[in-house]
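The following record pairs a protein chain with its ligand, 4-fluoro-L-phenylalanine.
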Amino acid sequence: MALAGESRHGMWSNKWLFVLAAAGSAVGLGNIWKFPYIAGENGGGAFVLVYLACVFLIGIPIMMSEVLIGRHGRQSPINAVRSLVAKSKASSFWVLIGWMGVLAGFLILSFYAVIAGWALHYGWLMGVGTFQNADGAMAGATFDAFLANPWMLLGYQTLFMVVTVWIVSRGVIKGLETAIRWFMPLLFVLLLVLLGYGITSGGFPEAVDFMFAFNWDALSWDGVLVAMGQAFFTLSLGMGAIMAYGAYLPDDASIPGTVTTIALLDTFVAVAAGLVVFSIVFANDLDPSSGPGLMFVTIPLALGSLPAGEIFGVVFFVLVTFAAITSAISLTEPALAYLVEEYNAKRGRVAISLGVICWILGIGSVLSFNVWADVYVVGSLTIFDFFDYVSQNIMLPLGGLLIVLFAAFVLPRELVRRQIGFDGGVAEILWLLLARVVAPLGVLAVFVYTLYQSFA
Ligand code: PFF
């Protein structure tokens, strides 16, 4: 039986495990696979700066809001918001935050598992030496041939879902605490090794220039929306994942401190991954805007030319798969915790049911890369593109907007002050400025302007 003030789903042993778990949720395919390729598609420079601004000015206040709501409620996001709505005598409209988060979690996990499956396959390919002394054309052709085979994609997606469901059914705390203690530090070390390779590859100065030069002309309004969406996606914000983890955070941990650490770790991994990938791109005359295959072409190419490259390659893709698993686990937690609370259901059974739903939804993404490559949901968006676009660029920012409005305007001020530990000083003023003005107006402005542009 959980003690009063503790979650029935368990508690992190200390604040560092929360930081590692939340960083485990944040650091994932979004940083290593997605950030480089969408930065490439959107011209680098200005895109990266908008993204960084969104992480720190919009992401941090929203993450603080998620953690404080979760920690106060000590339940799943839906029930945490529900109890706060009752306490603040607010409209039950706000419970939408929780429901929309559950839906976004399903959509994201469905395609996330497919891409994580690619990483699994590449771990294997690296191990058997496929990329020894490969060139860009061969690495590209290997990737295209893999995508053309729906059965392979389906097999790996299934394997990834089975492992995720297995860990999730053991309980997020038991399942995660052991794994993250050693794998997160390893991932950092390997990234540093790769960064060393990038710096000596000859493409590094161009990579730095590509990522940080102010090239506003290369950025469209849709690119601004994508940069904002990426900030939400990479920090796991807007759907209750961090809220669910916040429910297991001990009372004495500082929310601003833990949240800033998580955002910095996440940003470090994304920027490092970007520099590695673009150094290899420029050293080998590849196209930075070549899309979702960017990481799967550049990294094997680099590692294939290194001594002991196969070993590094296996380790790299295994770590990427782990990073994806710790993110996938957090994608299921809001729905899972809710169903366990509501129906007193067994975690294992709920995990299997959720896994099956995501697996079925994911088949649409598997087929988007081959058999249904010409089937569009709207415009030129395949099923994969559509799930990705709608969840990342619309649902997460909208969810985040509602969360920050709820925390900054609806919750009793005293409750927020107690949770965050404010005493009326500069930090509190900064919080009010970011949470009441900058973050909500930032999200709204990007939404309104992009809508206006697409209809104008
Ligand atoms: N933050 C993860 C990544 O960057 O790969 C993806 C993600 C996890 C998004 C959890 C949203 C979420 F709730």
